[in-house]
Amino acid sequence: MNSTTLQPTFRTENRPAEPVPRCRQPADIFESLFQSIQGGEVHARPTLELTPGSPFLPFLEIGYALRACLEKPSRHDYLIERLRPHLSVMIGTLPASILPMGMLPKLAPLPSFRPLEAISDEEVRDWLILEGGLIYGEMQRFELENYFDAIKPFLSPGGVMVDLGSGLGKVVMTAALTLPFTRCVGIELMNYRHRLAQERLIKLLTLTRKGLESLPRPLTLDTPLLLPSGLPASGSHLLELGSRIAFVESDMFKFDVRGASLVFLYSTCFGPLMDAISNKLARELQEGALVTTTTYPIKHPAFRLLQSHAPGTLSWTSVMIYQRVGPPMIEPASEVRYLHQPDVAAWEARVRTELAD
């Protein structure tokens, strides 16, 4: 396949979703399952734990130091001074975590926490990169339907799909329902998101069992089945759904994707990480494996662009489909590809306007 492949006509909004009172055919089961995994973008976001031993203590320390400057007008100039060198790794005008609805606890910082003056520029930069990765978003149902329509011509039956930064698991579960993957795996660093993904999976499997039990004619492993993507499958697709989905609480950089045939990256907040992610995927993926990204392209010689979808077509943001090409790569690509510098004067004007409100 190449970039000239005929592209499908994409949906622009969600279809009306009527509740499924009873499952009389497999299509009813699929519809009830899709409805059960919607709405994750509006979930409650708990604050990070401010307790001794928390893995987020270093993140909290720097976050508190930045927020202390945000909360005192006399410190605004110093806050701007400390953030200015790191605009290339910031998401938004000000870091979301230090704003009133951010993930920092409202409690006072621990006595051992340092003020911003005692925190190095390198630590601030690393904090901003991590902070961007904590921002959460989801594709809507129609966008995921568009996505799987776009990706299916490049996939062979079977294979392993991996979502790096899987959040509440919506993409992983949608993939497992829509296409005949052998296994779909979600990797998520944040414990509360991983926990919610597991809870949603339990709900999904419970609804699957109830739907199968309500069918007028029992589904067998060999019963012919038409998937929501239009591809053929068998009853095992629903009967063995639980064995094909897994969620792992882990750092994406510590999870080996060597066996993946498709890696999904909702990378809109991963801009500063794209070089490291691209190098990791180049080292681990086999030739022919697919990678898709949002917002940020992959600029790495080990990946060939198959399709690029502009914002407002497949999704609200751009979506790119790549294929791993060439021999295995041991060393990272030498070129640094994501060094960019936004307009400093425009950013500072926005910050001062927001701080004055």
UniProtKB/TrEMBL annotation:
InterPro entries linked to this entry: DOT1_dom, FAM173A/B, SAM-dependent_MTases_sf
Feature: compositional bias, Polar residues: 1-11
Keyword Ubl conjugation included in the entry's annotation: no
Listed SUPFAM superfamilies: S-adenosyl-L-methionine-dependent methyltransferases
Keyword Cytoplasm on entry: no
Region (Disordered), start-end ranges: 1-21
Ranges for domain DOT1: 135-202
Pfam families linked to this entry: DOT1 (PF08123)
The entry's keywords: Methyltransferase, S-adenosyl-L-methionine, Transferase
PANTHER family found in the cross-reference section: FI06469P, METHYLTRANSFERASE DOMAIN-CONTAINING PROTEIN
Protein name: Histone methylation protein DOT1-like protein
